[in-house]
Amino acid sequence: MSTSPNSQLLKGSLSVMILRLLEGRERMYGYEITQKVKELTAGEMTITEGALYPALHKLEAEGLLTTETQVVDGRARKYYSLTKIGQTEAAGRIAELTAFLDNLNLVLNLKPSL
Question: Fewer CB atoms near the end CB (10 Å): N or C, the chain?
Fold first, then answer.
C-alpha cells in the first residue's frame, strides 16, 4: 500500500478487501487485484505488491484461498480463488467490518456539545 495517511487503515482491512473482490469473481491474479482496487477508488487507494502478497499468502495458509498457476503470454500467472470455507469466512468478515464501519460512522458524526 502507498505511504499515504490512510495506509494504516488500508492495512487493517486488506484481507477483507481481497475476500470481497474474490467473492464476486471466479478467480483473480495479484496485479488484477491491485488494479481493481485502484479503479474502484479512483486512485485513492493503492495496494503495493509488498502488502498484497503477504496478505494473499496468509489467506491461503488459513485455507480461505486456493491457487492455480497458468502460463499467459509465456509467463506464469498465479490465480487466487475462494475455497468453500473462504466463501463463508468472506461473508462473515465483510459483515463484521461493515458493522464496525457503521458504528465508527456514528461516532465520527457526533455533533460537538456546546
Answer: C
